[in-house]
Structure formats: structure tokens, C-alpha cells
Design a protein that fits this description.
Blueprint: H1 34-53, E1 59-61, H2 69-73, E2 80-82, H3 83-94, E3 98-102, H4 109-118, E4 125-130, H5 146-151, H6 155-172, E5 177-179, H7 188-194, E6 199-200, H8 202-216, H9 232-242
Parallel strand pairs: 1-2, 3-4, 3-5, 5-6
Helix pairs in contact: 1-9, 3-8
Amino acid sequence: MINSDGKTAPVAPDPAGVETTLHELRFRVLARTPYEHLFTELGTLDVAERAIDDGCDVVYVDTFGDYAVERIRALTSVPVLGAGEESIRHAARAHESFSIVTVWPESMRYLYDLRLTATPGGRQCRGVHHLSDDDELERIGRRDGVKARMGRHEGDIVDDLAALCRRALDEDRSEAVLLGCTCMSPVADALRDRLDVPVLDPSAIGLAAAHAAALESTPASTGTSAVRHAGLAGAVVQGYLNAEQAESVWVDDCGVCAITQSVS
């Protein structure tokens, strides 16, 4: 499990016969725009290379953005799953229509458009609804930021999200709500208590799909990848971490797809 969301543990226990290992990113960039998205994928690809080298049987990217999943699939024959595509497929199979509700601002709508366009069932999404404005991006990593508030189960953030879900359902006339970030797992149950429609948690759905893939998977292939420059992502990230000027690069302080800096 590539721990894009900075969790301390997966959202569900392993079934018998499966062991989930968290792999931490050495280099995290919040995908605020398509520009930063490139570096978010680079950091994800770096850790995926290391997980594959460790001999994992399945790679699961725990983020709705499904960062680098297609690039990781080019590296390996083992199943590669992302929380976004798995939860969109699940929502489309289970419901004729659904709405996405996310804590992130509308300026990050491009991420949802990418996943909905690329994933079968994406057309059944009737709308994407954003809780925050761009000011929320300045609170990333702070105690008053939306992720920290959800982690503390603060009543006002749950109330605001429930109200947004109700507006989304009314406007879209949809059957279910799909949460638009794996960081929203801590409030999923509270939202279910407040709403009379299914509330779908992408982190839980993606992890369940990864468990199923691990139980079905054959042992990891030892064959040679068709990629001619495997390992390049790790070399690029290590070069950045070692660079003398690295400290002058703009950074975020966040456990959700944001830069943290450590040399290993």
C-alpha cells in the first residue's frame, strides 16, 4: 500500500492470507495543479519501484488521484490498483448514479475529471462538489486544516460535509455519495449516520479490492520489465533529496500528497 494519505494504518484489517505493508513516500507534492501533478506522480513512482523490488504481489495506491498507476503498470506484471478507479467502478456497479463530494477546492477539479474520464463508469457521476475554497490549501498541515479537523471528528466539519452531500444529492438527483479523497475516511461513518443514502469511502473500497487481488494473484513475476529505464524515478528523487539547493524549493507540510523531505 503506497501511503499517499499519510495513514498510520490501513482502514481495515487484513483478511487471512494477506499482509499489507505501508510504503511511505520520500517525496510528496500536493497536486494543486497539473504542474504539481507531475511531481506527485514522480514521488509515487519512486516508492512503487521500491515496493516492487521488495517483491510485493499487488501495488495499491491509496489516493483518489490514482497517481502514476499507469506508469507503475508499465513496470510490473503484478496488479496495480488505485483508490479512485476502484471506487468509481464500485459506485457505478452498485448505483445507477452517484455524486462526488470532496473537501478540496474547485481549482483541483481537474483531478476528478481525469479519473472520471479514464475509468469505466465515470459517466454515471452526475456532479463533483467541493467543500473548500483555495484558502484551504494554505492551511495544509496545520491544526485548523480540513484533514486535521476530520481526524479529530469535529462536529462542524461533519455537519458542513453532510450539508454539502444533501445539496449534491438534491442537485444531481443521484443515488449515492462517493467521497472524493482517501483522507475523508475518518468521517465516513459519521456521514452515513446523517444521510439516508450510501456513502462510499474510496480508501476502504480500494483496500478491499487490493485484498481481493492479493488473494487471487500469483506470486510476483521475476521477469524483466519492458521499461528500459526502470529505477530512473528513484534516481531522480534521490538526486533532488541530495541537492544542496533542495531546502530552497517550495514545500508543503502535509500528510496528503504533499512534500516532506527526508534522505534515506
